[in-house]
């Protein structure tokens, strides 16, 4: 078999890249190791930057997003018993974010791909990348006990942190940067109305908490837990009690509790791999970088990489120029590192660190107090949160 581009991974980055390329007549095959149902069963991101929405519009996959997504003009920071709203739209000259679950983005992109008759091979095992250091790369994989080979022009590694693509890069050519955090996020989904009409990020001496949502009837909440915490230790009652302890009184009183239908613990880490290109292999999204979800950047950074790589591939196929592909890694990484910094800063400002002590708690509260009363500091947070220019 032959195609223009083999995309490894059917997450948001692989699907979005495939949809955009399909729109300009560039053929792709997506190889996904899990089943379609497993991919759709994941609960992850919830906040889309305007640039991500625009890319989904360009891919023709934004109809449901505009019908069901929730435009948000602000967020609130809770600390010292008070609640402080940041008017993102006023601070950024009119920008906003859209609350729309990653699961829905993935579903919409899968539907578009299937409607276009584009090929995705689910439950593809033993995916292996070959020849990407030269001009004739190819990918092999097994499906239902049969081995297959796909020859292609390029390989897009959209297979996440645990994927095969980054691990296929020549070790001497790859540099990685990492910081792990001594805590994780315990998240629940419940069919209950949200406690606030916008997101609430809470700093509390017991630990961080986040009030988010998926719709006016479905809430997404998180509390910080130790990195080695066991999910079995958390009944719904314990979760709701701990969440309300970490929120200001008026917000806690507005929390509507109910049975969770999803409960999971996500570890937090900052990770970047450089460069993002190895000959005819390109790394995209979580395959190349991971951010703590505090800044709501993970999914949006995946879309950012897709925007740069799509523009470069369009230049190659339509203008026969390699310039965009040569510039992809540096361009994408420049924006990645700014989002990695912002996510690290939000995480260090809002979470309880084991060794931070009373002094550290006071410093965090002082930084938050300065932030919500300084136009300059609030603007800096707002312009990063809604998404920096590309
Ligand atoms: P993904 O990991 O989504 O997709 C990679 C795909 O490749 C997967 O379908 C995988 O099955 C497949 N794959 C892996 N190895 C393969 C192989 N060898 N062969 C073939 N296929 C292979 N971001 C936020 O902004 N906010 C959040 O709250 C948030 N919460 C998160 C919670 C968790 C538990 C995790 C893991 C991530 C979270 N993220 C969050 C980040 C997340 O949204 C990612 O940024 C986003 O999924 C990135 O998309 P992709 O790059 O497509 O990678
Ligand atoms: C979510 O709704 O899952 C969410 C929102 C904002 C974040 C992280 C997660 O910063």
From TrEMBL:
Signal peptide: none annotated. It is an enzyme of class 1 (oxidoreductase). InterPro entries: FAD-bd (IPR002938), FAD/NAD-bd_sf (IPR036188), HB_mOase (IPR012733), PheA/TfdB_FAD_monoxygenase (IPR050631). Keywords: NAD, Oxidoreductase. It holds the Pfam family FAD_binding_3. GO terms for molecular function: 4-hydroxybenzoate 3-monooxygenase activity. SUPFAM superfamilies: FAD-linked reductases, C-terminal domain, FAD/NAD(P)-binding domain. Gene3D superfamilies: D-Amino Acid Oxidase, subunit A, domain 2, FAD/NAD(P)-binding domain. Its EC number is 1.14.13.2. Residues 3-343 form the FAD-binding domain. This is 4-hydroxybenzoate 3-monooxygenase. It comes from Mesorhizobium caraganae.
